Fold this protein.
Amino acid sequence: MSRKAPADDVDPADDIAGTEVSEPKTWAAGVPGVTAALRQAYDQMGVRRTALTLVRVNQKPGFDCPGCAWPEGDHRHLAEFCENGAKAVAEEATTRRVTREFFARHTVAELAERSDHWLGQQGRLTEPMILRAGSEHYEPVSWDEAFGLLAEELNALDSPDEALFYTSGRTSNEAAFAYQLFARAFGTNNLPDCSNMCHESSGSALVETIGIGKGSVLLEDLHQADLIFVVGQNPGTNHPRMLSALERAKKDGARIVAVNPLPEAGLMRFKNPQRASGLVGKGTGLADRFLQIRLNGDLALFQALNRLLLESDAPDAVDEEFLTAHAHGFEAFRDHVLGLDWDAVLEATGLTRGEIAATLGDVLAAKKIVVCWAMGLTQHRNSVPTIREVVNFLLLRGNIGRPGAGVCPVRGHSNVQGDRTMGIYEKPAPAFLDALAEEFGFEPPREHGLDTVDAIRAMRDGTAKVFLGMGGNFVRATPDSAVTEAALRGCRLTAQVSTKLNRSHAVTGTRALILPTLGRTERDVQDSGPQFVSVEDSMGMVHASRGRLAPASPDLLSEVAIVCRLARATLSGPDLGWAEMERDYDVIRDRVSRVVPGFDRFNERIREKNGFTLPHAPRDERRFPTATGKANLTVNELEVLRVPEGRLLLQTVRSHDQYNTTIYGLDDRYRGIKAGRRVVFVNPADLEALGIGDGAVVDLVSEWTDGTERRAPAFRVVGYPTARGCAAAYFPETNVLVPLDSTAAVSNTPTSKSIIVRLETTGRPL
Ligand SMILES: Nc1nc2c(c(=O)[nH]1)N[C@H]1C(S)=C(S)[C@@H](COP(=O)(O)OP(=O)(O)OC[C@H]3O[C@@H](n4cnc5c(=O)[nH]c(N)nc54)[C@H](O)[C@@H]3O)O[C@H]1N2
Ligand SMILES: Nc1nc2c(c(=O)[nH]1)N[C@H]1C(S)=C(S)[C@@H](COP(=O)(O)OP(=O)(O)OC[C@H]3O[C@@H](n4cnc5c(=O)[nH]c(N)nc54)[C@H](O)[C@@H]3O)O[C@H]1N2
Ligand SMILES: [Mo]
């Protein structure tokens, strides 16, 4: 287990000398997974609370796991949780507390020196705190004064568009709906969210091609598939419960193709901890084929498969009936793909022609194909064209809108998809605003707002002055850390609604507020009685979540209550019913049912055993609500991302011991790393070519097209079997390397998975 940070000592997160490196693992979960989870849970919350809490994860009367957005099946195990879900729960249900005495002991400047790991380890926030102008310490403040200050700063702005309302994807549907309503009633669509850094590229590509920005498969489709591609995703760490679904599909004969520069343990073999055989046996082999692709090579791979399909003699290589009835743009797509340059494909992918041809064999043998993907596809310059090409691939064989087949963007945060459905979006659809206007009787702003990257630019340029974060850790999750930190420091007020301490509390505007809130695991009681909230998973299923633990402190407010009270303190004009919404969340759900399509009889259906599934026209009726009224095949230019001599393409990934910017511990068990995070994984052949030894200490220096450089100092080099020319290191330590202007075309998502870097040896000893 990871070393714990001593309370007030050197920060072990920055200590690379203690890092231990061993062989990467070739299988995921099983006994070490269970013991690692329980150890962390006991450590954070003790034995009794662990037992009480973990049995309620994802159970019918329980709470939705705050870990990830993977859906729960119908037949939930007594403890349908995974190692990393348990860590997420332990992190929230910890018995450690951050009190007013803590803030009296530590200046804000001192907190800004601490690692993410240390900050998170201090425990749950317990009361609202204020950092007054010129003060070095946060001090306690009443909720009323806190809302008064926010209202005062918001109302002092020259325009509502000088305010930013950020959301992280853990916020419930009810809180998200109230929050976007508040922002729009205040007068802005500035609703940047974590999705802008996450699956925005998927949403952009899917809306254009199939007419809806969400995945088209349900859990049972995955179970029934013949062939499943897992592309740019590390489910063993980030969606462990997905491994059960893959295991089940394999038992029914599915093949799995994993496409990844890293041979992630969770893609190779799975020992199911929910079954005795998984605890002792050798587990289930997962990937039948591993395509060790170069970073950013996926557009080339899928275009090559599409070309091979178009050229194939197999009678059913292309589903002509489907294309004729449902697709638009076939001729232009075909002409383009038939001109594909094989040399470019081999250069971009690093694969052989034989590997791609063999994969075509898998494809031709499969009637039902699902493609799953996550951040490995979404965080590149060409992410939107890449995902469009994946859609082309599925459409060619009619693999959208029938059982066992479809697109499966695997979402990150547990309610990130629901937040978007509730209107957390800087570019809201006119129909959504019309419905909002009709229901609430005010005219919402129509002009598009700022997304995450544009929000940083606005703060940097002084055109945004008040920042409110509904969860998350904006300063740490975003790119170009130095630029972003300066941007936030330029604000008049930064305020964070949070459960735990993080760097966004330490890098502040002139004044700052910490607004501590209830977590998913906790009882939420309002004047009308106990409340529950709802969430939407990665597959469009909406269900209730009800916490049972006593709140971490009596001074916490729910996110809903915070929004409603802030709205009452800030807004003039007709009352939109804030007090009623805070008092009884059914009132919010009633209003949602009249504004958001698919939520009719919300209050009734959310009380049904498994909740309900939102409609999805392509999946349910093969109807594609796009501009052409059909599924759009698209033309996507292949541009090979060339890296100059002596440079590597760096991706920033999650370790097994973190949840985004929350660092649970300093190990990455599956990749063989212990007690350290400042490591960079490089192919041994590249190390040799660069003349850098395994174990050397290097600075990572990124080179951007405008000639600027960015430096992340002191990383230990680890020779690792990643694809040639590629490197990997952990985020958020490496966010400093991602230029703010390096974003995906269309979606504006930071390119966190393809950064050109050089390794500079520092001569520093380990
Ligand atoms: N325990 C835990 N669970 C989590 C999270 C967490 O931090 N911890 N985060 C949550 C969130 S918000 C999200 S979005 C998801 C993230 O889930 P993932 O997307 O699985 O997370 P990453 O660590 O970013 O891993 C990216 C994977 O894509 C591969 N990859 C990178 N670039 C490319 C490429 O160009 N092509 C291909 N084919 N592969 C590539 C990497 O090697 C890696 O395996 O997980 C969610 N669940
Ligand atoms: N370089 C690089 N950067 C990345 C990524 C990457 O792969 N590489 N991934 C990106 C992705 S996919 C994402 S989604 C973003 C994540 O960006 P965010 O969502 O902003 O970041 P998190 O680290 O998930 O936020 C953690 C904080 O959320 C708060 N929190 C936890 N639970 C709750 C709750 O129930 N309510 C409230 N109000 N607060 C809560 C806690 O205070 C905790 O410190 O990061 C992005 N940044
Ligand atoms: Mo994410």
